Structure formats: structure tokens, C-alpha cells
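Duplicate of #3305? Posting structure anyway:
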């Protein structure tokens, strides 16, 4: 988070605690983006989970974040280059010593079925997969209840393809301050940021519900702009108490964190001190 405590604390106090959203599941306690990571996140008390979805070469949806498989599997290649049969054989291992496997999206839907919470599906576009990935996500969700679902992406094309899809799930811009990010201008304050948000809303068929900014972008001026537009603001990825304090004071809707248990313990401690 930026060292703008005075600007953040000048924002209106939030009316409720931000939702605690586990980033790629409880990735400190299980391999990220696995069924176990999602299960543990809810067991820890998270109010939501964030996870990344990619499409295999034969059209199956799986959970995986990185563009390349190497860091978590020790093998080369990318998910969109492999079949589901190939992907399901891979063993995952992270730096904490956890092991797991890449789950199929159908398994995630089964896990989440009947559960209340915020389910943030990031359309993780690798190479030129935006249209195929988005079409597959629409097919997987269109016949299912979509309350609590939020579809987010850095990819303009992916969110554009949701227009007219028939999905009622919320849609969110993933915003970074890097000009290579399709939505980076939506992180600007003032008239330029307002114009960028309006343009983004038109691009996604008028169905734009949330902004998901990098924590370094959160300050009073930007929060005023986003909240004036009626957007939920779920900020990523915040792992330290000072970040949690500043973002909570700014009035964000959700805190996306690698450490949901730590955040909730910090929140309980603050309440006990009041």
C-alpha cells in the first residue's frame, strides 16, 4: 500500500467490515488454486475465494494461475497447450512443501454448490485464448445460479465477450498501474479515470459492477471515483496488518489476501481492544 495514510483515513468510514477473500484459496496452507486451498479458506472463515481459470487445448476448464507450468510442476509448457488428460497427471508442489493437483472446474462447482459466499473467478487469459476461454466459462455457468459470482479479468477482450452472454454474474475490472494492463486507465483519479470507467462499462455491455485494483492504487481520490460510480472495490493482494488497516479505513468492499486466517485474527484483536 502507498504511504498515504492521511488521504486514506480522510475517506468515509466503512459501514461494514470488508469481505475477506482468500487469494487463490488459502495458499499459505495448501497449494494455490486447488480444491484443498478453497476448502481450507472457508474453514478459516473467509467470506469469499478468488481463483484463476484457464482452458486446456481440448476445451476443458481448470484452475491454474501462471502462464507457464514450471514453477509449480517442474515441467515446461502452458495449460492451453495441453489436454485435460495431460494436465490431470501433473503433480503440484509449492515453496511451503504442500502438494496437490490441478482441479477441473466441474470439481470446483461441486465444492461451491449450495455454499454462500463471494466466488471471484478470474479469467486468466494466456496467449490468444480470450474468446475461447470466455465462451467455455459462459457454457459452464449459464445454467447455474450465479448469486455471489464475480467474473474478473485483466483482459479487455475477455470481459467484452461476456456482453450478451446471458450471465447474471457480476463483472469486475482487474486494474494495475502498468500500461500493459488493458484497464490501467480505470485506476486514474479525476476526469480521466471517470472517462475510462465509462468506456469500460460500454465495452462490457453496460454490465460492470466492480473494480479490483492493486493495493498501491487505493487512496481517497480513487475510492471517491469508484464509489461514486456505484462499484464494489475488492483490493489485492494485501497480506500485512498495516495494509489491512489502511484499506479497511478507505471503505473497500473486499480484501483479497493470501492469509485469510491472519486477517481475521487481526480483525478480532482490534475489536477486543475497542
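Output from current build:
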Amino acid at each position: 500500500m502507498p504511504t498515504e495514510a492521511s488521504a486514506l483515513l480522510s475517506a468515509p468510514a466503512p459501514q461494514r467490515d470488508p469481505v475477506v477473500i482468500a487469494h487463490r484459496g488459502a495458499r499459505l496452507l495448501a497449494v494455490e488454486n486447488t480444491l484443498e486451498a478453497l476448502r481450507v479458506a472457508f474453514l478459516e472463515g473467509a467470506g469469499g475465494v478468488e481463483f484463476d481459470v484457464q482452458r486446456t487445448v481440448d476445451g476443458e476448464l481448470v484452475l491454474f494461475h501462471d502462464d507457464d507450468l514450471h514453477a509449480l510442476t517442474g515441467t515446461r509448457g502452458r495449460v492451453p497447450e495441453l489436454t485435460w488428460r495431460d494436465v490431470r497427471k501433473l503433480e503440484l508442489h509449492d515453496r511451503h512443501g504442500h502438494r496437490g493437483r490441478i482441479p477441473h472446474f466441474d470439481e470446483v462447482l461441486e465444492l461451491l454448490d449450495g455454499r454462500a459466499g463471494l466466488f471471484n473467478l478470474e479469467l486468466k487469459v494466456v496467449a490468444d485464448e480470450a474468446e475461447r476461454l470466455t465462451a467455455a466459462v459462459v457454457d459452464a455457468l449459464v445454467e447455474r445460479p450465479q448469486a455471489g459470482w464475480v467474473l474478473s479479468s485483466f483482459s479487455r477482450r475477455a470481459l467484452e465477450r461476456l456482453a450478451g452472454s446471458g450471465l447474471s454474474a457480476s463483472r469486475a475490472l482487474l486494474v494495475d498501474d502498468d500500461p500493459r494492463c488493458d484497464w490501467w486507465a480505470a485506476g486514474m483519479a479525476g476526469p480521466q479515470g471517470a472517462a475510462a470507467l465509462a468506456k469500460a462499462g460500454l465495452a462490457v455491455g453496460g454490465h460492470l459492477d466492480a473494480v479490483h485494483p492493486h493495493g498501491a492504487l487505493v487512496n481517497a481520490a480513487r475510492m471517491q471515483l469508484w464509489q461514486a460510480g456505484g462499484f464494489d472495490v475488492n483490493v489485492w493482494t494485501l497480506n500485512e496488518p498495516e495494509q489491512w488497516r489502511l484499506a479497511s479505513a478507505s471503505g473497500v468492499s473486499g480484501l483479497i489476501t493470501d492469509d485469510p486466517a491472519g486477517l481475521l485474527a487481526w480483525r478480532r484483536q482490534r475489536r477486543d481492544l475497542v
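Confirmed duplicate; merging threads. Residues 1-14 have pLDDT under 50 and may be disordered. The chain is about 35% helix and 20% strand.
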